[in-house]
Amino acid sequence: MWYIVDCDEGAELLYGFKHEISKDEFAERIENNTLLEVTNNVPVHKGDVFFIKAGTLHAIGKGILIAEIQQNSNTTYRIYDYGRVGKDGKPRELHVEKAKDVTKLAPAEQYPASPVEKHDGYDSKLMASCDYFTTYVMNIDGEAALTADEKSFNSLLILDGEVTVGGIKAKKGDSVFVTAGTGGYTVSGKAQLVLTKV
User: Fold this and answer.
1) Catalytic residue flag (residue 29)
2) What is the pLDDT, as a whole number, of residue 175?
3) Which residues of the chain have pLDDT under 70?
4) Domain 116-197 belongs to what architecture?
């Protein structure tokens, strides 16, 4: 999941395809350097959310600061590299055959938007939920009572403002990790943050 923390005006990211294409067309466009003609380039704004399901073609454009939440995975198949080279001065390895097997060659699936829920001292909005994580954006204004139960940690990424989390001060750009089994804790202050748990 990508949350757009900030971005330049006119910034965009690549998210799936404009229309469905075949595996042969996919490979041919990679080979002849025309893949970007059929990719879906999406203008982004601060606060946008993209839930990127496995197999969805995606890339961050210039001028974008994101918070990325994902399951533990180091698998990336590079199919296009914008003409960049590695430290040895040679083009970096592409993984076209592997990507052909797993890439969804169609427009990306849209994740439904959730309503804002009001609570004492804060409001929250579900951004994404799957088998690997659940993520909310929260606006704290006062004191919020939260819980890190036995099943999951809480990861707090401060997007704006300043809060105190169980005696720890945190400001914009800071991250606080509350271990599983901590139980109830409070977040006090005025801030916007991303809360992630499993």
Assistant:
1) no
2) 97
3) none
4) Sandwich (2.60)
